[in-house]
Amino acid sequence: MRRWLTLVVALVLAGTGVYIASAVLNRGEAPIVEGCTALLNGNEESLATDQAANASLITAIAVRRGLPARAATIAIATSMQEAKLRNINYGDKAGPDSRGLFQQRPSQGWGSEEQLMDPVYATNAFYDALVKVPGYESMTVTEAAQKVQRSAFPEAYSQQEDLGRAYASALTGNSEASLNCTLRKPDAAGDPSTVRSALEEDYGQTAVGVVAGKTVSVQASGTLAWSVAQWAVANAKGMGVTRVQVDGQAWIRDGDKGWSAAQNPPGVVVITVADAP
Predict the structure, then answer these.
(1) How far is CA 95 from CA 67, 88, 99, 147, 199, in A?
(2) DSSP characters for 196-219?
(3) Origin, by domain of life (predicted)?
(4) CB atoms within 10 A of CB 253
(5) Helix, strand, coil share (%) of the chain residues, nearest 5
(6) Cα–Cα distance measured from residue 30 to residue 9, given in angstroms and rounded to the nearest whole number
(7) pLDDT at position 251, please?
(8) Lowest mean pLDDT: which of 96-100, 117-121, 154-158, 268-272?
(9) What is the value of pTM for the model shown?
(10) Fewest CB atoms within 10 Å of the CB: 60, 76, 163, 178?
(11) Domain ranges, ordered by start, for the chain
């Protein structure tokens, strides 16, 4: 009986595998591994889609506050080292009450647990402390991060410097068309009002979105335009974004097409979300 059951299970699993492979081949599609990359000075740094979205929030708040890209580099590297760029609701043995993107502690005066689990609050709290550090712009990431965090392992922040620089450069708009996310097709319609609200939460009045049909348009030029555009790419997975147009370029969500030349209206970023599948 046992041998018979084993044979049946094996046949079922084999049949399932053949069906999946056949379905993929018949559609002419290769399996897509989702993720995001940022390119700087020939080096490519990779993040999961949720990590890239959190990096975009951290950077947008730096832009909103008028901080230099170096501040965003330090913040992204710190969050990556402390929490893998995820908004986690637990700490470790060294800091059991640590919470959020930066593992800040209520017991050390950073705010309540509820506040620290709000990524916008936590990011602003980090920058509030960073800007009080004299000369942080010229410090190494490790030196500046340690002045803020006071970690038991201060040298660890240096491991994330290249990643922090790549994503900060792209998401502040200093590196154009350098952030790309490889994504599957959306499984639900996108909501342009959600995109507009997220822009307002992250950028404030720095980037005001106007909804028309399935698009959100933002009047912007220069580094701000590229900041908003690459913010939209970093959030494409969660918000159902299918196309981003800016400054003669367009990012198209279709496997791994990335950025290419396109005809766009000048001085505006156009973000398009998916229709119902």
Answers:
(1) 29, 13, 9, 17, 33
(2) HHHHHHHHGGGS-EEEETTEEEEE
(3) Bacteria
(4) 24
(5) 50, 20, 30
(6) 27
(7) 97
(8) 154-158
(9) 0.87
(10) 178
(11) 36-171, 184-273
